[in-house]
Amino acid sequence: MNVTKLELTNFRNYKKLKLDDFKKINIIIGPNGVGKTSIIESIYVCSLARSFKSNDDYVILKNGESFSKIKLELNNNLKNIKLEYTLTEAGKKTKINSTLKKRISDFISQYKVILFSPDELRIIKESPNTRRNYLNISLSQINKSYIKLLNNYNVLIRNKNDYLKKMYINSNMDSTYLDILDKKIAEFGSEICKIRSEYIDKLNKYIKKIFKRFKKDDEVSIRYDSQFSLKNEEEIIKLLKKTRNNELSLGLSKTGIHRDDIVFLHNGNNSKEFSSEGIQKLILLSLKMAELEVLINDYYEEPILLLDDLFSELDIVNQNSILNNLNKNIQVFITTTDINNVKKSMLRNAKVIDLGERVV
Ligand SMILES: Nc1ncnc2c1ncn2[C@@H]1O[C@H](COP(=O)(O)OP(=O)(O)OP(=O)(O)O)[C@@H](O)[C@H]1O
Ligand SMILES: [Mg+2]
Asked: The domain spanning residue 169 has which CATH number?
């Protein structure tokens, strides 16, 4: 899958931007604040109908404008696809080949994206919630039923929390409703746990080897921490019964896959506390490259790789190692402030988008 054309209207700092003639390797160069990340972001938004910079859809809307539009064309040898994503005060409007898509779910994932950006370091550094979000976004790209399962599960947890709160105030209330909810939580929760666990197993098949390209003596792997791990539905129901009193005393549901976490292990230590900034960046990059391998090898996809601000904080050896190991069949967009970061041999085969000091 290759992006062949991109047209932005009122997107971030761009009033109008038209780009085409992309190659497999595309390098976006320019000084700070010129709009490099915005281009990467627009390619991400057209795939997932959301930004990676904020949960607020409207941040992409150019200040003072009433709508924002991304037109993107794709080619995968067999066919051309034209995508259109428009954001107005009335919400999102999406089209595939000029046909309006009523549901966003029918628009997303026409092509897969793998994003690496310094912002994404929060996956390692921040709370379990950030890591669960990361897992959810990755899995939603490869498993259509996952999002449905997760939404159903979240409704159950919301209902359970409401009821636990009521029981917290009035302990004489009947708990049969909680039993019904727990049964469903066990059913959906075990399914989600299985999908997450299988995905992490797949990532682990690659991440260790990929990281060794950077530091051959170091070991990196991902551990999945879930209260539901290796339990069948019956065992989960038992666990929920066991923790019921605790949940009642808090008025809050504390048991389930909504408390899951993943830990990045670096030589057996939690890299969040153990690894240096540069190493955390390499672990994140290895994770993204592992994701790419899973998509290619297990799902026969050809994702588009978005590498934002790839070179900062990395030494020259690691920078070259990344560039030398890029999969030749995958289209990649790389942003950098300094053309000297990119090897001459790579520049010869790349499209260079020099934003210079352009006025937009
Ligand atoms: N909604 C918006 N409307 C108008 N301008 C915006 C909006 N959102 C962001 N900007 C501006 O767009 C510019 C481009 O931001 P972007 O993050 O793409 O820059 P960049 O080239 O990646 O810079 P850096 O090298 O610092 O990462 C910034 O100057 C920012 O202030
Ligand atoms: Mg940037």
From this structure: 1.20.1050.90
